[in-house]
Write a structure and sequence with these properties.
Two copies of one chain form a homodimer. By secondary structure, chain A is of the alpha/beta class. Helix content of chain A is 28%, strand content 18%. In chain A, the strands form three sheets. In chain A, strands 6-5-7-8-9 form a five-stranded mixed beta sheet, sandwiched between helices. Chain A starts with a helix and ends in a 25-residue tail after the last helix.
């Protein structure tokens, strides 16, 4: 983490106050880091104590500059009062990639997340040296780096889908590669650099598609929908929400806008609707569905539930840079 | 509820969009009400799906007018884009007051909450007819009505404390009368108009004071404090938070500002501090302390923990109209 660079920036800008935002996984270090910044920069720091899920999610803070740690910026949001301080991880041995080789068919689309984006050249070199052609997809305006995945934007995979025979995701967890598996027809292999585990996303894709089909079926009879809209700067899709409302009304159903910042089951329990449509973070419906007591669909899934579209190849709801952010914060 | 009046106001103002805010207890009716307003006013409604605890807590919404239901306004906030739609309850039989009579010593300070404020004249009449002198305390600028209590502001009790021998609170729950019991030395009797239960707050006061003493003692050795600041318009006390930070530093401790909208234990777990000082809603430390894994103090309690003040008569942390709200939303 380039903390020196961040502190220099605070001095250059003459900041008296700084806001600090951390991903949940860094909560334990938050106060130590605030203490260090206060001491070294001689200013007052303020920790944002609300969960942050990405660069889509920068709150207002009454400070001269906000530093968001652990994420890359979304370039198209062009936030002048926010500094993104990435927290890259040191490159381990690449031996963990060996078990991927029998599963990959070149050309291979190489993908990762911001934590490991600095490894890309080394990863590519390793695969090329072993006879695989590697393609790294260019980002759209929402993504900072070639080959970088977001939960809500898999452009770096989609844009090279026709050119590759398989994808290799290097990183932890299923969240990011699942987005790729859902929105492309190519094999997706995930390799965890810390556990060495290598897996094919095919089974998980199948499971999730069944869950989505069940949710769509359950919602197909729903009369009243709660249409979730988040005010978070990179998740605010009010235009889409109003289109969803009109679509529902044209189909003889009803939709009611539910405006919130943080989307969570405790905040939605009790509303007398039959189902939800989520225009905020596109992954909540897919990854958190079990937490909600009513079916939750993405807007694209709603079109299937209303029989405006066929259940064909699955279309992941994404927020890409073709979605223009609001001119000012909601 | 004067829904006709609200709809007329929407027409008068030429609103195309309205935001609706409900207290948690009204979640079940929220969508039905949104539906009725949309239909009758011919506009688009948006429900705020974040918990609302009072008129201190009106979020930004991208609408022409916000209607907050169930609370009275805080007059000194002077919110031109918010309409407060009170939800008064029908006056039941006043027989439930009979059991209070042996416990009351006149003059009696009469207190209630906004849900029952329309009963005040009838309540007063009942007591006077039975030989008790009744005093109804005037509000400060944060409170809409004489005799009205807020969790964070018990001015209508404090300002008449010297003139009464006991207080009578008419309403449900302990939350409101507890504030009175903690901040005055007079007997506080609570009468529930729906269950008929009559109780003296003395035992609860004693229990809570013991809990506060324990929290203060636990925090007295704390080196690092998290200083909670909420951005909610009527709870934002950044000036106080910075004073707390300076106070801690002058005592050789450290305080780190934690900025959040909604204060909840899940958002604070994991921060490496020994205790919290809460400058947001003053009742969280008192009523929700069991939910937090570290001691949480009010700013006044912190002064005792740091031995800047003696543990004498308990001073309830309040937000009154002497606390100037921010010029604009944080």
């Amino acid at each position: 983490m380039d903390l020196d660079g961040a502190i220099a920036e605070l001095r250059t800008r003459g900041c008296k106050t700084v806001g600090l935002q951390y991903p949940d996984g860094m909560r334990l270090q938050a106060i130590d880091l605030a203490e260090e910044i206060e001491r070294r920069a001689g200013i007052t720091a303020m920790v944002s104590a609300e969960p942050t899920f990405g660069a889509c999610d920068v709150p207002r803070m009454p400070v001269d500059l906000i530093i968001q740690i652990g994420h890359a910026p979304m370039p198209y949001l062009n936030l002048r009062d926010v500094l993104f301080l990435e927290a890259p991880m040191a490159l381990p041995s690449l031996d963990f990639l060996e078990d991927t080789l029998p599963l990959l068919e070149g050309p291979v689309g190489l993908l990762t997340t911001v934590q490991h984006i600095s490894w890309l050249d080394d990863l590519q070199e390793y695969l090329i040296a072993r006879g695989l052609e590697v393609i790294v997809g260019e980002p759209d305006g929402r993504i900072a780096y070639a080959g970088q995945l977001l939960g809500c934007d898999v452009h770096t995979a989609r844009c090279v889908e026709q050119d590759v025979n398989s994808f290799l995701y290097v990183g932890t967890g299923d969240f990011h590669p699942l987005g790729v598996a859902l929105s492309t027809d190519k094999r997706v292999i995930a390799a965890d650099p810390f556990t060495g585990e290598v897996r094919d996303l095919a089974n998980l894709k199948d499971t999730v598609l069944r869950q989505r089909f069940a949710a769509i079926t359950a919602a197909s009879d729903a009369r009243r929908f709660g249409i979730i809209v988040s005010r978070k700067l990179g998740q605010y899709r009010m235009g889409l929400a109003l289109e969803v409302k009109r679509l529902l009304e044209s189909e003889g159903r009803k939709g009611y806008l539910l405006l919130m910042d943080f989307v969570g089951p405790e905040f939605l329990r009790g509303y007398r609707v039959d189902a939800f449509v989520n225009t905020a973070c596109p992954r909540i419906a897919i990854d958190d569905s079990a937490q909600y007591d009513k079916p939750m669909l993405t807007p694209k899934e709603l079109e299937i539930a209303l029989e405006r579209k066929e259940w064909g190849r699955y279309e992941l709801d994404e927020i890409t840079s073709s979605h223009a952010p609001p001119a000012s914060r909601a």
